[in-house]
Design goal:
2 copies of one chain form a homodimer.
Chain A (H helix, E strand, L loop, with lengths): L7 H8 L3 H9 L6 E2 L5 E2 L3 H15 L3 H9 L9 H9 L2 H22 L36
Antiparallel strand pairs in A: 1-2
Chain B binds a DNA duplex (30 and 30 nucleotides) through α2.
DNA sequence: GTAAGACCTCAACCTTTCTTGAGGTCAAGG
DNA sequence: CCTTGACCTCAAGAAAGGTTGAGGTCTTAC
């Protein structure tokens, strides 16, 4: 625990996340900390990047459980190298691209399709979006998960 | 109740939604039905378009409560005209465009920023995404809601 | 006319992602 | 030393979006 370690409040302020969220992330294996003799959490500065990546991944549409899985493959003890972060980030591209394409398709069809008067919903792209969430099983549907992602 | 009315199972099959979801939508004012003498729901074919629009709106990122609000402004008794649907759809454009821009920004920064080695997270666009969800209040964050929406 | 399958209601439960609160401990400045 | 603000744990709650189940009724095809 070097003098440069951060208390949880510092991390909260710098990351923009709530203290409770940080504890929640730790409980779910997304981040880790050491403890002072008194039992308080101390974070390496490193954690800020990790949190930034977590937030970015959430925006890409990954649920936390999956993000935890991805982060678990990174080296635990030592700081993660730039190229390792980069490799991780690049693996998101396909999902991101797919999400963007879906939205663009939707946008392009919105004007033409909704008001088109086509009564056969079978043919309508709006009525039959490529990615239905109906095969994702129970629970709330995160529309952003494509069926390709199990 | 003309002979062409649909039972809830028919609607479920045609829309790809679960029966329970349809009842849930009705309970929340997103769709409506008439009842047979025996108390079973019957839907006008009209409801399929409405459901398609609801699903599209969800993909655009609107929460159901808000979709309900938008749909509430449509005429209740009679079928909705093409131009009315169109007006509704057009009102989504700005949100959709904003969502697309956010994702594109993220995509563009992913390669350059994550592995860039910039240690000052203050300046890093990834670390400080334009749209933080932190001011959205408690509860699960739907990352797609921009802070502009309340 | 009857049996099977579709529907009904209502309450309870589920997942995700956190927040809130109660009750108590640490750490650091004065 | 002592007070005050930051931390701690653990349990419960919250919001969205539905699903599941129990117990019972309709409809319809034979």
């Amino acid at each position: 625990m070097s003098a440069g370690d951060l208390a949880i409040g510092d991390v909260a302020r710098r990351s923009g996340l709530a203290v409770s969220a940080l504890r929640f992330y730790e409980a779910n294996g997304l981040i880790s900390s050491t403890r002072t003799d008194g039992g308080q959490r101390r974070y390496r500065r490193d954690v800020l990047r990790r949190l930034a990546v977590i937030q970015a991944a959430q925006q890409v549409g990954f649920p936390l459980a999956e993000i935890a899985g991805m982060l678990a493959e990174l080296p635990a003890g030592r700081p993660v190298s730039p190229s390792e972060w980069q490799r991780l980030a690049r693996s998101w591209r396909p999902q991101l691209d797919e999400r963007i394409r879906t939205l663009e398709r939707l946008r392009d069809q919105l004007d033409s399709c909704v008001g088109c008067g086509c009564l056969s919903m079978e043919k309508c792209a709006l009525a039959n979006p490529a990615d239905r969430a109906s095969d994702l099983g129970p629970g709330p549907r995160f529309w952003l998960r494509s069926r390709s992602a199990r």
